[in-house]
Design brief:
mainly alpha, Helix Hairpins, 3 domains, 12 helices
Length: 241
């Protein structure tokens, strides 16, 4: 990377900045996730290499500006892992995954500067679903939460009823947003990652739709113009397959 960024290196690599590279960092992360979801291990091997390039690239740019070196980043994460795992590297005790999370969060709280509010510091660049997860988790930890998942499900039905009575585009947008937020809370109660759950459903839908398209192609036809009843039959066939 240092060679590529050198004065006689690659023109494209030399003109990159933190801001121009950050989009690739995000793209490579999602490509790693896709390889995992597809259980495509050769692709994962390659995508992890692409992802590893991103911190190398960022660290090289930082080094050129005398900000830090990649060794500093690696040292920092090593120290953090040791510090936040006192049940492994120290004398603390944590028997379950929940115990570990409690210890981790407790130590993390002592490392971060005090916030002006419970919801302060949430990354605004997060996808909306992940932001909702973080917001609801923090509020719940502070005691602002339902007593049971059944109450959250009741809230879901309440929000659905409100959506039915919404009459303007703005009202419908607001009610649909409320529905998403309640679903995120249901996922939290069930300890399900809402982002992963939705990505899994997206992948499932694409696979079934591809099956549907392939079956129609065998008949020399396409989705457009096919009666919905026939499409539903092919969809059920895809589900069985």
């Amino acid at each position: 990377m240092a060679r590529l960024r050198a004065p006689d290196g690659c023109p494209w690599d030399r003109e990159q900045t933190f801001d121009t590279i950050k989009r690739y960092t995000l793209e490579e992360t999602y490509e790693v996730m896709e390889a995992i979801e597809d259980r495509d291990w050769p692709a994962l091997r390659e995508e992890l290499g692409d992802l590893l390039l991103q911190p190398v690239f960022h660290a090289q740019m930082a080094s050129e500006q005398d900000l830090f070196r990649i060794e500093d980043s690696l040292r920092a994460i090593n120290e953090k892992l040791i510090r936040r795992h006192p049940h492994i590297f120290g004398d603390a005790s944590a028997e379950t995954a929940d115990d570990v999370k409690t210890v981790w969060d407790s130590i993390k709280a002592t490392e971060k500067p005090a916030k002006n509010g419970i919801l302060e510091g949430i990354n605004k660049a997060l996808p909306a679903l992940l932001e909702a997860k973080e917001i609801s988790s923090r509020a719940a930890k502070a005691g602002f939460d339902w007593d049971s998942v059944e109450q959250v499900i009741d809230k879901l039905h309440e929000e659905l009823d409100e959506l039915k009575t919404a009459t303007t585009p703005d009202e419908r947008e607001g009610e649909i947003g409320d529905l998403f937020f309640v679903l995120v809370n249901i996922a939290r109660f069930y300890k399900v990652d809402p982002e992963q759950a939705l990505r899994r459903t997206n992948t499932k839908f694409k696979k079934r739709f591809k099956h549907l398209e392939r079956r129609l192609e065998e008949k020399g036809r396409v989705v457009e113009g096919t009666p919905i009843g026939e499409l539903e039959e092919l969809w059920q066939e895809a589900k069985r397959a």
